[in-house]
Design brief:
The protein is of the alpha+beta class. The chain has helices at 7-10, 37-44, 47-53, 60-72, 119-133, 149-157, 186-190, and strands at residues 20-23, 28-31, 77-82, 88-98, 103-110, 139-145, 161-172, 175-185. Bound molecules: coenzyme A.
């Protein structure tokens, strides 16, 4: 889904010249472009991320093709997470968007050297504010390994509620893993007392 309103107010990032869709206090979000394929390809090749998210490293060519395809699709929006100086530090997305049901899935991955500094929470809050504050979603859901402590901590901090476990739902390194299912509903987002990304 593309957002017609609210994109212009975030403006152009001074350092990189990228058009920001969202500017929160400590990070900005900019739409992923095909020239970002190399960055995403590098991050997706990180073994920790591959293990935690269950992604399979693809060729750079396949990555480029996928971004091109995703740009045409209106069931997902992909963003780079940027520091205030324009440094790209990760990828966040609203995928599987279903406008009739008002549902979408959240994907989040930071480059290893930028983890553990609060950027994951900042990026997630900015995306959540976009999904509920500018787009008509009612439910955002995430699945992650039940052992992915950092993801569970970040999601819980952003208000996501643990709603269940998909047992033996993925296979990594020769064994089956359970996936925790978390979600955030619009009324729960409305009840959050934190400042919104647009207040930054
Ligand atoms: C999961 C991920 C996005 C988290 O982002 P991050 O920037 O590292 O996390 P933050 O620094 O914002 O941490 C937010 C909170 O979680 C807590 N936290 C982070 N890692 C934790 C861990 N391993 N155990 C317990 N708490 C943890 C932090 O202490 C912080 O809480 P606080 O503000 O109360 O101190 C990042 O680690 C990542 O990209 N991992 C690989 C890909 C992945 O697993 N994606 C998740 C798919 S849903």
């Amino acid at each position: 889904m593309t957002e017609d309103s609210g994109t212009a107010d975030a403006g152009l990032d001074a350092e990189t010249g990228r058009e920001l869709c969202r500017r929160a206090e400590s990070v900005g979000l900019a739409a992923v472009d095909v020239d970002d394929a190399e960055l995403l390809h590098g991050w997706r090749s990180d073994p920790v991320a591959a293990y935690e998210i269950g992604i399979w490293p693809r060729s750079l060519t396949a990555m480029r093709e996928r971004i091109e395809r995703d740009t045409e699709d209106d069931d997902r929006d992909d963003f780079l997470v940027l520091l205030p100086d324009g440094t790209p530090i990760g990828h966040i997305a609203l995928s599987n968007q279903n406008i009739v049901n008002g549902t979408a899935q959240v994907e989040l991955m930071l480059a290893p050297e930028y983890r553990g500094q609060g950027h994951g929470s900042a990026a997630l809050d900015a995306l959540v504010d976009l999904a509920f504050g500018e787009l008509p979603f009612h439910r955002l859901a995430v699945e992650t390994h039940t052992e992915n402590a950092s993801a569970l901590a970040v999601l819980t901090k952003s208000g996501f509620v643990h709603e269940g476990v998909s047992r033996a739902a993925c296979l990594h390194r020769g064994r089956r893993h359970d996936l925790a299912v978390l979600s955030l509903l619009r009324p729960e987002w409305e009840a959050l007392s934190r400042p919104r990304a647009w207040d930054a």
